[in-house]
Amino acid sequence: MSVDRVPGLREFAGDERAIEGLPVRLVIAFVVGVATLSVMLNMVSGVDTLSVSELDASPDPDVVTPGDQSIDVTAVDADGNPVEGATIVVKSGTADVDGVATATTGADGIATVHLDTDLGPNQDDGTLEISVKPPAGSEYVDRRENTHILVVRE
Fold it and tell me: In this structure, how many other beta carbons lie within 10 angstroms of the beta carbon of residue 149?
């Protein structure tokens, strides 16, 4: 089929203006798209329900000797503020503890955990692992490793 048989095809085939306008339209669409995306991301990051705060445990003392004892463990958020209602769990690491010790933090963020620690034969030191279970329905999580309690033989 030749160009002469279709009406208007000759004019369209010879028109070079469409090529000039296409890149400008793509640039405008890209700029508008990026601006819209940045506004949407700012809206999503501003929603408080999506943000969480990491919990950490701060034992006092953090170095103990084998035997029966009580240790105060403070649950703190990322800003260092005490957290009420968190459950502190202490379990054996390289040192032994009789079972799993748990306690819940009070209004001051402190939980007192009663432990019966022990070291293996020919073992001079070991650690106990602490984990923090956030209060139910809170914006807290405990994903990172917490401070360990060091058990040292005298």
Answer: 26
CA distance 88 to 111: 7
Can you read off the two tokens belonging to residue 122? 């020919």
| 16: phi then psi, degrees, rounded to nearest 5 | -100, 0
Residues 6+ apart with CB under 8 A from 114: 68, 69, 70, 101, 103
Residue 72: Cβ-neighbour burial (10 angstroms; 0-12, 13-18, 19+): middle
Q: Which amino acid is at 39?
A: V
State percent of the chain over pLDDT 90.
1
Half-sphere exposure at residue 149, Cβ-oriented, CA atoms within 13 angstroms: 35
Contact in structure between 97 and 116 (CB atoms under 8 Å): yes
> What does the alpha-carbon distance between residue 94 and residue 59 come to, in Å, rounded to a whole number?
17
Give the torsion through C-alpha atoms of 26, 30, 32, 33, to 10 deg: 130
What is the reported pLDDT for 16? 61
Evaluate whether 143 touches 136 at the Cβ level (below 8 Å). no
Look up the pTM and report it.
0.62
Q: Which residue has the tokens 């445990």?
A: 57
Q: How far apart are CA 7 and CA 98, in angstroms?
A: 94
